[in-house]
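Rather than argue in generalities, we have chosen a single entry, letters for residues, whole numbers for local backbone shapes, without further comment.
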Amino acid sequence: MEAISEITAHHLPQVTHARNPGMALDLDWVAGVQANTSAIERRAATIGARRSVKKDFQAAWLLKAISLIDLTTLSGDDTAGRVRRLCAKARQPVRAEMLQALGLPGLKVGAVCVYHDMVETAVQALEGSGIPVAAVSTGFPAGLSPLHLRMAEIGESVRAGAAEIDIVISRRHVLTGNWQALFDEMREMRAACGDAHVKAILATGELGTLRNVARASLICMMAGADFIKTSTGKEGVNATLPVTLTMIRAIRDYQDRTGIKVGYKPAGGIAKAKDALTYMALMKEEMGHPWLQPDLFRFGASSLLGDIERQLEHHLTGHYSASNRHAMG
């Protein structure tokens, strides 16, 4: 198990960088942003084919993946009981005897993500755990509520105890190239979040082109987003590897220009352990080790944890179990 202890020694969040204060809108920089779609797709296609980890190393990477999960429930039939069960799973993401055997009895997820009216319930259920609560806000998932109501929603979530706010941008600003409007809106939302970290959801499946994705990523970072996030999980197309490559290269360009690190969160459609490993390999290659820590990388997921737990049990026993042995709560 030496590989496991070595790779996951720092599995809890370790924030070592300043928040993103943003910068003045630079439209010349935005206009110069391009995206070579065919080259991006070729690069993305190589990741899963070339990168493979096995045995103890695979278990170590999967344990690391658990620490990067924003464990999420965003359903119309959410109840306080469901949220409390999800929080219990966040505290104990893998069965205790398995974590003991793997040498990581204190492992926890990165955060719990809920609708803003469930924040108080989640905060109470996670008290003393150190796990932050993230709230989806601003008219999630469409983001078409009047602006003053979206701002009020952020305030309600912050007052209820949310440490992170996942806001949704107005896609129409991207599709019409109204970068000033997108910047102003994002800047106002960033201010409304106060001390809570803000993740900007781009809804990339609705932005039309990878160039739009790259430009929207840059605008949101200029306006002070601490994370940029692919999707609400409600679009027809959610996180993909080409979109991920586009967004993280925008993050790298922003860091090169400003010295500020911005986090990345793929969300929607990442349900299998092997997919998590592919995304992590891409982050490792493109961004380096700091972006395999929870303060700079998260998975927005609900069913991913169950498949990871199943793979870890196979690692320990040599047998695959039924998925109902790894319930979410």
